[in-house]
Amino acid sequence: MESLVQWFTATLSPYISEYAVIFIISLMPILEVRGGLLAASLLKIPELQAIPICVIGNVLPIPFILLFIRQIFKWMKKIELFRGLVEKLEKRALGKSDRIKKYEFWGLMLFVGIPLPGTGAWTGALIASLLEIDIKKSSLAILCGVALATVIMYVVSYLIVGNIVQ
C-alpha cells in the first residue's frame, strides 16, 4: 500500500494541492482513509487538518454503494463484457462475509476498522449491500469502522512512520 500511496502522491502533487491529494487517495478503494493518512503524514500535513479530509473522502462513496450497487451489478450482469467481473467481485466480497453475517454490526465495524488487505469501507459497504443488512445499521457500523481505522492509522502514520521518516 505504501508504494501505491507514494506513487499517487508523487503523480498528483505537482498538479493539485496536498489536501486534494489526500482527499483523492481517501476516496479510492483499497487505499481509503489508511492511504490518505499515510500520505498526509509523508506530506507533513498536520493531523488535525488531515483527519477530517481523509474521513470525508473515505465515507463519501459509502451511501452510493449501499444504495445502488446491487442495481448497478444487476445491470452490469446483463452485459457479457462485465458479467465475469461482477461475479468475481460478488464472490470475493461474499467470501469475506462470514463474520459479518454472524455478528452483523460488530462484525461489519471490525471488518471496516481493522486495516488489513481487502478490508475497508468500500468492501464493507459492498458486503452489507449484498447481504441486505439494514442501511441504517450498516451505515453506522461502517462509520464506526472508519473511526476505528482512523485511530489505528493515525498511530501508525503519525506516531510510528512519522517518527521514522523524520
From TrEMBL:
<dbReference type="InterPro" id="IPR009577">
    <property type="entry name" value="Sm_multidrug_ex"/>
</dbReference>
<keyword id="KW-0812">Transmembrane</keyword>
<feature type="transmembrane region" description="Helical">
    <location>
        <begin position="50"/>
        <end position="69"/>
    </location>
</feature>
<dbReference type="Pfam" id="PF06695">
    <property type="entry name" value="Sm_multidrug_ex"/>
</dbReference>
<keyword id="KW-1133">Transmembrane helix</keyword>
<keyword id="KW-0472">Membrane</keyword>
<protein>
    <recommendedName>
        <fullName>Small multi-drug export protein</fullName>
    </recommendedName>
</protein>
<feature type="transmembrane region" description="Helical">
    <location>
        <begin position="105"/>
        <end position="128"/>
    </location>
</feature>
<feature type="transmembrane region" description="Helical">
    <location>
        <begin position="140"/>
        <end position="161"/>
    </location>
</feature>
